[in-house]
## 1
Amino acid sequence: MIALSRWLPSSKQSTRTCAGYWPMTSILQPPQSPVDGVGMAQFNQQLVDSILSLQRFFTEVRAASSQKEMLELTLAHLKALLPIQNAGFYFPGETGLDFILQTNLTPEAASELNGVIDQAIESGAFGWALNHLRPAALKLDDGTTLVLAALRTRHRVIGVFAASFGFQLAAAWNAHSIVLATFLGCVADAILSDQLAGDLRDHNLKLDRMVQERTHELQNAKEAAELANSAKTRFLANISHELRTPLNAILGYTQILQGNEALDKESSEQVGTVLHSAEHLLSVINDLLDMARAETAAIEIAPVEMELRPLVEDAFRILKPRAEDKSIELQCSVGSGLPRIITMDPKRLRQILLNLGGNAIKFTDRGFVRLEISRRKNAIRFVVSDTGCGISQEDMPRLFQAFQQVGDSSRHAGGTGLGLSISQKILEIMGRQLHVKSEVGKGSSFWFEIESDAAEAESVPELASISTTDSALPPEDRETLPLEDFVRIKALAARGDVLALQQELEQLEGRSAAPGPMIRQLQQLASACKLRQIREMLDRHERHHPHC
């Protein structure tokens, strides 16, 4: 190890003469010794041999597997070309304040070389060699010559070559220095390339480890999130069942009390408040369960062949009382050219239409709410528009977020802010999108499209325009229920067992090839726990069909 506390020469060291050494000026211009013709011919032949061996040297150095092998190859080539007696390579240590011999030499040879390097540091020749492109040559006391040459790349010095030569080197120093600098430049570039390749490999390995660790973390986080979502869905499903059981009793007995003629007006209003609150709680439970399923993509889409017109009429019939309560005109327009049969999940399509229609009615005080169905090239477009308060541009980004209600805060009562979010989720699962256009004070329009084969020829009978003042809709009383089914449904409604009634209607729907409007209407009322309306509907059906 050569300490470098003095390796950079001072201005005095760079010009002073040390005993037994060439002056520093003689390093640049060594004394010219006469060379006879035979010696010159021999020198020229050596120079030609060195040029010829350079290509072979390039190939071998580039094929070397390590820095140590590169240095050994370099020494072997230089010893074959130049009269080298002792030589080695010095590289900076970890601190950068010392140079370490990294060549396999005998202890005696290493001690001798380190000794002359110490003298070179004292004289300033070592520092001079580090800062110049050309090798430095110093004549030693024993008549040999010490050569110092920096291993230099384009941007930095990576090491130093030190060698002692025979005295005859001085006569042909200029040519020898060129050969030496060329070989050392090649090996310096090869060493730097190997170092950079090693650094790149290490960096790539580090990146691979980081990617693997991050991927593992993300996978664990994903599994934890999926487990949490699954647990949440199971919890909501279970808790909703537990909540619906007592709520079923509340709804049943409240509706029985509401039909009690012995109640005075004030008591009847109080019972109506309880019934309204229970119905609202049931809708919240249903929305929360749908939202949990949507977040985990557990909402099932079961497309079947269905008739378009009955579904539209069902949605219109359910929305009609809400519009009449607010004295709003409810309109429906079904364009020409629509297929009579479409492939769709009727439950989800009805859910979306009711959500959009219910929102439109809630935020509209005057004018109309319009449901419009029209044909596009390969799709059917559903549009729900209104003349309500509209939505500001600032509220648009929050419109489809769960539990977010925008617009007039006075209208938020009675809602959870889940209707639009659930509708959007259902459409996303179907690969569709819910669009909106709105202007404050002028109303809003929501629309979406579902695929439809343009080749379907049988069209739905045109329903140009119907409204809440029309009586053109076919009543559900035209449908006749089988006697056994009617008796079971009426008995469940009389007991107020909403859950059993819902299950019975689902089984009845499953047994029917094409469920009629009465079954669908009963399902909607059962989902909302409106037992009084169910009983009235069954009584009316019994009057129209005496056989029941």
## 2
Amino acid sequence: MAFDPSKLDYKAAQKFLPRKGNLIANFWRRDFESQILDLLETGDFLQNFERYVGPLPTPGEGYLAAMEMIRKSYAPILKLREVLKRHVRGVIGKEPQFESVLEGLELPRRERRKAKNSSGSPVEALADAVDETQGRVWDEEGEHKILKQAVARLCAVGSCFLRYDFPPGLLIDGVDRNTGLDAQGVAADTWQDAYEQIYLELAPRGSAAVYLDPFTRRKTAFYSYMEPVPGTETKTRRAIQISWVDENDITQVRVVRHGSQEVDEWGVETGGTLLVVDALTEPLLTPDLLQLQDILCSIATNIKINSDVAGHPQMTLIDIAPPVVEVPAPTEANPDAKKRVPTAIETGPRTVQTLYSYVAKDKEGKPLVGTDGKPIIKQGSLEYREPVSSEPLRADIDFFALEIYSAVNQRHVPARASANASAAMLAEMRADFADSLLETKPDVEKVLRTVLKARLCLAAFAAGDTDALSQFKGGRVRVDLRLNAGPISVEEQAAIIAMRDARLISDETAMVLLSAVDDVEAEIDKLGEENRTASGLNKTPTPKANAPTSPVKLEVV
């Protein structure tokens, strides 16, 4: 039976949204995505001791105090956050280049501007307006920051959801399914005005999902959010927005609500795109890297505890009585009776203690007396616990950190601190990093193209601009990410150029490493054109004198 999203109510739609965990053996077990995102996005480093893999105290007296000491001494070493930020910065640290290619403009902008037949045409003016509007929205609405957050989540776990829509406050009730946003009261005279009102957001974790129907291969998007209850000022209720593309290429929207049979439905033109766009890529972080991160933090915690011993030496008292205090201990025979109980020994900086040695006693517990009639005092002593060297622990940290760097193709980072790393070796390692950026690049560009084109179509539809809508639906959006492999030395630059000349790395990889050009693809096209011109491949061959002027017919004898 075919899946029909137009029949879903709130209870049925809720089943498609992700759950917080899986109930296994009567305990909620969190998945890897929750663990890694709690670490990176919320700063929950210890996660109720789930992230600590070091030695634990034996259960019993003093167990809680020991666990509290570990909690206070827990020292996070955020290598995963470091390598993730470096990868994200390399992919989308610079503002991408946007360009609209509409119908009738077959050549890229850098070439069609030279063509006299398209210069100054209405389509050209529309394309320029698209680029100008997107650039203005990008700067004013902080979309670069939103997309960096989205790419960070995408690279961390391999998926994320971007959502675009008009603010709910701009929409009114009584939506007509045929006229769509025209009946919703969107205040937009032009598609540029409407485009600036469409907001873009990274969907909060657990709020969005895209379901792929295995029978029809059609996708349905779900987005959960809170909205105010009509007629109240403080109460809210949960609503789920469902969107899908029908057979007429219209994006249908259905909103269902918790505790209410009220349903809103309308249709919009988005170029065949859902209001929630799912982005997918090969994740940079994996469960084994999270385990290496946990090991690093546990080693660092032990170093912290060892440094506490160095700063405040721990001592053992032998044959020395701890300080005591008298407390009331009334009995029936003596209501004023008191008893002496030991008190906690003060530790830490700038503490001075007065302690007493023990009085020697015989087998029956009676004090021993010397020849002078005075009690025999046992000679007490103090033993200090000296801290051990943390050098082996620091070496272990370097070892496990190197494993993380190697797994994410960032070996050049620790290698630059080594005096034994040559420029050629650093260039080779950095080339691996550039290749990893190039692997992520098309996945990010794909989702950006999808979102930008869908917003253009939605804006033109809201403004009732049929001409612009036709152009946007038939055209495409070009997005070029300007990759950046980070700063390099002069020696590394020379090594990269030598590797490129020896054809050990491609032109594209070399340009990413050198960060010499913003538009890598355009520069590669130019290089190809220059190479063809230099080799004579672009020249029209001159026919020989005895060459036939008409095609030669081959006859079979």
## 3
Amino acid sequence: MARIKIRMFSLQDQDKDYRVYILFFVVAFLCYANSLTGELLSDDIILVVRNLNAHHFSTLYKLFLQNSFHTIVDDGTYRPISNLTFGFNYLIHGEHTFGYHLVNTLLHGINAVLLYELTLQITKKPFLAFGCSIIFLVHPVRVEAVSFISARHEPLAALFSFLAIRTYYSRRLALSALMFALGLLSKESAIVLPGVILLLDAYIDRKPPSIWLKQRLLPVAVYAGVTVAYLAVRYAVLGKLTVPIENTVFKTAPLMTRVLTMADGFLEYFRLLVWPVTLRFEYDFSIIPPQNALTLAAVTKVALIIAVLAFGIAIFSRLKTISFSILFFFLTLSTVSNILTPTGILIAERVLYIPAISFGLIVCYFLDKLYSSNLRKLAIVILIVISGAFATRTILRNRDWQSREAYIAAFVRDVPNSPKSALLDGYRKLESGDIKGAEQAFLRVIELEPTSAGSYVILGDFYSKQLKLDQSRALYEKALSIASQDATALLGLARLDILEGNYTKALQLLEKVQEKIPDSEFVFYDAAYACYQLEQLDKAKEYLQKAFAINKNQPTILLLAARVAIKQRDFNLAETTLAEVKALDPENAEYYIVRGLLELARQRYEAALDAFDQARRGQINSAELNYATALAFFYQNKFTLARKFLQDTLRLQPNHSAAAELLQKLPKQ
């Protein structure tokens, strides 16, 4: 057994046993097998489903000309390579999630291989390198980066960073610079790579500092050139270099608040590395409260973090591996520390994907001491126990990423006082029919985040769907008093105007919304619907074409297209469009309203009434349905029935002028 182990960890390239690499991939798939069927969640919808430029080969280049979350202006991220991989996934298998998860898992396995080879090359300690890669594979803090499709930028940036380091030490500087550039275009945090390489060089090279620095002038200049070029491209596309201050978690908070608060953040990172029992989808101020005062506890925590960093520097000449691990951890976390610049997150598990290598290095440094002595079996047993515990937690954690229901349940469980938790809880209760519970949850969002415009928009949307229009309008106006150009509040007001029949005003608001949200099929649908009601049918068709360019299989949009075709008396097109709706959603109750309108336009009144009855069986009772039914009876001279449905129309929509006029034309009873 010992001879096999020695051979497995051979230092000679020609004697490498590739069973080690196979083992890494086996471990990766064992840990993440139950994530491979996970659904699209959260940001996945934006990055995969709604990113039109990722759906066609001819538009993939446009991914380099937009921010990552293409529907949100000023989101402050630029990750075209990551989005390009989503595009390739989509072109191969559409929205089937297995392929997306498979790519993430393969990336994780490849990174473990590259980490093993790099650690082996630098430390010349096979057991340390092997153990470090195994812990890298199984540590549960990496679940978010692997199981969450949208977090692919973490393993992808790690891949290019490892390749940049590998090619740097192979004396292929140009190729290393290219890998660095690809890493930056995968995730901006790769910008620390030159610092990591210099730290590695200092770890390896014992030459005097003057000679050491002189030999690295060329690589430093090359990486600096790549960095400047990347920043120039980023600025050209985004119009900024960092996350807009309004989108950061700290917003305008002073540096002292950020430093004091992030001391708690770093302590939480330490806990996650050592004892990752409790894992969360989000870490906000309900988990790590903002610290504004120089209390003894706050200052002590800052002093502790500084002491750890100082210790890492002080022991560099004596305990290089421990020192390197500490300095590597702080260096690779620096870009998301909220110290150098505020960011869009407080802390997050996914950002530990690379920094957590430090933990594995430290653990395996001590295990290697045992392995190199006469306690080899003990070292192996300890590594197995640690890896087994971490792997078990990883497998259990994957279940929280399996489905939307599991995701929401875990989020509410683990972050109970977060605004997002209350929001998700509200959606869950709304879907289950608990209207009162949903309202309380949305009120809780406002209670937790009273200065956010979005909190009021959420409750406004809820009241709008409950047809509490006055309450809804007041909430949208409150949101606009906080953020005067908030697109979601403007959209909410536009939809209220549509409900109230103010279509011209709605169109004016929707034009403003399109400036903020340029690629939403639902915004185009709303504009098309307003034009349809205003009898601006050609303009309605233009908006519908824009909506279809984003999503050609949305039944609601297709039904509006059929309505436009009916008004233009293009009955064949209306029939074709309705057939598409029937194929996509056979149970769609609105289909029968539009089917009835088509039959009504063809003067097939009995067929129209049959369709309207079908709509009512689908639990629809709208002013439009009642008015159309009244028309069918009116044209059949069934005035008593026509009067009943006209009265029902006006009961639902008192300002329905057409119903009021027709009611006046009916013969007196």
